[in-house]
Amino acid sequence: MMSKFSFVSTLNFLTVIFFVLFVFFVFIGTYVFSKDQKSKKSLLFLLLSFSFAFICIGQTFFTWSIFKEDAYFFNSVSSIGFCTFWPIIINFFLLLNNEKREINKKWKIFLIISYIIAFAFVVTAFLGINASKDYIRDGFSWIDIRGNSPTYDYFYVPIVMPTWIVVMFYIIINIKRKAKKTGDIMKKKQFGIILFWSIPAVFFAVFVNIIASSIGIKIISIGFLALGVWILAIGYAITKYKFLVPTLEYASKEIFKIGREINIVTDMGLNITEVNDIFFEKLGYSKEKVKSFNFNDLLFKKEACININVLNEEKVNEREISLRKKNGERIYTNLKASFIYNNGIKIGMLLVLSDITQLKTQNKILDEKVKEKTKELNALNEMLKKQLDINRVYAGVTVDNFIKEGIDPREIKPEKKEICILFSDIRNFSKISNTFSEEETLRLLNSVFGITDPSIDGNKGVIDNRQGDSVIARFENPIDSLRAAIEMRRGMIKLNQERVVSTRLDMGIGIHFGDVQMGNIGSTYKLNYTVIGDSVNCASRLEALTKHYGVSVIVSGELIDRVSDIYQSRYLDEIILPGRNNLIRLYEIYDHEREDVIEMKNKSKDLMFEANYHRKNGNFKEALKIYNALKKEVGPHKYDTERNISADPFIDFNISICEGLERDQFFDNFYFLEGICYYKK
To answer: DSSP state, 13?
Structure first.
């Protein structure tokens, strides 16, 4: 061996390439992790880079080795990276696929098994169990000759590797499909690149490093280079689309693709970092000159300087300002300013300036605008006259939307429609209002309506009616109704935190999807365009049930069936309401809750469902066993210390029902017949 090889003679381009890749992947993994140390994604990318670095350092000395014993050892070093590479990259893609929530239990079990298998194969490689029978030195490297290894030939190659590869491609394709469905263009582009490069890279690597040697084809083990190219493609997606390390520079480039107005991006000190091409076209400055400017340097008058503190982040801030062009001329603009965020942190400002110079300099255009405004005012005056005439005979609901669409609501014929009805009610309002003066009661109601009305209107809902402290609203889209309910509950939490009124307020919400009759009710003297029907009564009773079940928002199964699984929800019960013969399924929506409460309810909902099944079938002892175990798990945890209620009052409700049924007790609001729950009110 020594007469044929020397350590210098075996040094070749493959050795150099693998060593360069080793250094590169250690650097890129460390760099990404240093930019975002709190992210699980960046930690997994670091581990992924290091796993490939193990492959590279093993292959560096494998191709450089003189003796077979060295080749055996460094091939085992490569196996550390190669075997762990697949579980890590699957873990990485799973994390990207579940960015807003934890990886589910089944995938966690799969990952644990995969890591154990990977570790086992690394150990067996070092023990020589799965090592090659022999190597042949051929040019740049050693050629692998596989031996008769049952675990490798009959378990790893035909089962483990194909499973890992299929699962990996399934996750990648699923992420890309979900991104396309949700309109996430960034992630769609990222995984388009990753998928494009993954197919040839993975199959080339598997064929060259595993299949070829298994079927007796003598070929240099350079398949790892294809995996390196694939990781570089992932790195390219990271660099280009920044799903690990977002930057102000990338945000600027994406923003500048929109519109034909002057766009300027600044840091939080209003120092200019990027401008679009329209800026140079309108103002005439050079690219080198601009980046030394503060935005205030562009203003025509120094006394007009602005401060970042006066720019309102809650709404688009519009103001007229004048800029100085390079040749000294003045350009009038309308400024709109907004903050740019990275992970909830302000990193800069986007300033959009519309050129309104012509409006300032051309009287003809101004005259046309005045004429147009005059016409608009005349039309508005006519519309107001018509609205006053309509409102004279209408009671309750406003009819602005009809008038804007040119519809006279007095001529609308009754129609039957399927819509969502939302019913909200302030808990114990009569008792609370008895302690207030009339003025305080009105202030309390207006505070609550200041939350409910924008939430309904902002989600394409229409307030159909008010009954004291209750609100009835209708929605065409079930998702809009759920979004409005969540905003209403969050608004109530904020209202109580701000202590707008002296007493704590609570609100129940019920939502049902079903048929209603829509039309005018009343006489020619007074009319009200409203909805009637069983669906309205059903929504009202669902709201009433929130008090008994100890939850804030109850929706019907008819509504849940029409929305995708995008909200935090759990099954509560099946019940027959007064005036109905069919069972209605009840679900709780709890996206408005704190994160720890959401997590607790998500973990317990499967057991809740099981306990409810036992209760329906008369197995009260088994149901109580589950409910008491859940209550013990919740323990003394309180998320509302002022009302001193448990983290999940629904558990206490079920315990009281089961204990009462065991004793054949009668309930004030419910009765049970052959396992079916009937609501009395």
So the answer is: H
Select from 500, 503, 506, 580 the least CA-distant residue to 539: 580
Q: Which two tokens stand for residue 382?
A: 């006519």
Q: Is 435 strand, coil or helix?
A: coil
Looking at 296-362, list the stretches that DSSP marks H as alpha helix, in order from N- to C-terminal side. Answer: 357-361
152-157: Cβ within 8 A, 24+ apart: 153/214, 156/121, 156/130, 157/210, 157/211, 157/214
CA distance 44 to 30: 11
The span from the first CA to the last CA of the chain, in angstroms, equals: 95
Q: What is the mean pLDDT of residues 575-590?
A: 90
**Of 17, 42, 18, whose CA–CA distance to 30 is shortest?**
42
For helices 223-241 and 185-206, angle between their N-to-C axes, nearest 10 degrees: 170
Spell out the domains of the chain, with CATH numbers in brackets.
Answer: 13-241 (1.20.1070.10), 248-361 (3.30.450.20), 394-592 (3.30.70.1230), 595-681 (no CATH)
Burial class (CB in 10 A: 0-12, 13-18, 19+), 266: buried
* Residue predicted with more confidence, 664 or 577: 577
CA distance 365 to 289: 35
Instruction: Give the separation between CA 492 and CA 448, rounded to whole angstroms.
Output: 7
User: What pLDDT does residue 244 have?
Assistant: 47
Tokens of 505: 């307020």
Instruction: Report the C-alpha gap between 486 and 502 in whole angstroms.
Output: 24
556, 534 in Cβ contact below 8 A? no
In this structure, the number of other CB atoms found within 10 A of the CB of residue 625 comes to 14
Contact residues for 304 (Cβ-Cβ < 8 A; gap 6+): 321, 322
Top mean pLDDT of 50-54, 385-389, 645-649 is at 50-54
pLDDT at 514 exceeding the cut of 50: yes
Q: At what angle do helices 40-64 and 13-35 cross, to 10 degrees?
A: 170
- Give the DSSP letter of residue 102: P
**CA gap 215, 206 in Å, rounded:** 13
Beta bridge partners of 535: none
* Burial 380-415, CB ≥16 within 10 A → b, else e: eeeeeeebeebeebbeebebeebbeeeeebeeeeee
C-beta separation of 557 from 584 below 8 A: yes
pLDDT for 570 equals 92
CA-based nearest residue to 664, from 618, 624, 628:
618
Buried b (16+ CB within 10 A) or exposed e, 176-191: beebeeeeeebbbbbb
- Give the pLDDT of residue 101: 62
Distance from the Cα of residue 562 to its chain's centroid: 20
- With 0.85 as the threshold, say if the pTM is over it: no
Phi, psi at residue 175, to the nearest 5°?
-65, -45
Q: How far apart are CA 597 and CA 132, in angstroms?
A: 54
- 248 neighbors 265 (Cβ within 8 angstroms): yes
β-bridge partners, 110: none
Q: What digits encode the pLDDT tens for the residues 467-512?
A: 888 899 999 999 999 999 999 999 988 888 876 566 778 899 999 9
Q: Quickly count: other Cβ atoms within 10 Å of residue 440's Cβ.
A: 15
What whole-number distance in Å separates Cα of residue 19 and Cα of residue 90? 26
What percent of the chain has pLDDT above 70? 73
Residues 400-421: tens digit of each pLDDT: 556 555 666 666 677 788 999 9
416 Cβ contact list (under 8 Å, min separation 6): 515, 516, 517, 518
Say how far apart CA 431 and CA 250 lie, in whole Å. 56
Angle at 402 between CA 396 and CA 408, to 5 degrees: 95
Q: How far apart are CA 219 and CA 217, in angstroms?
A: 6
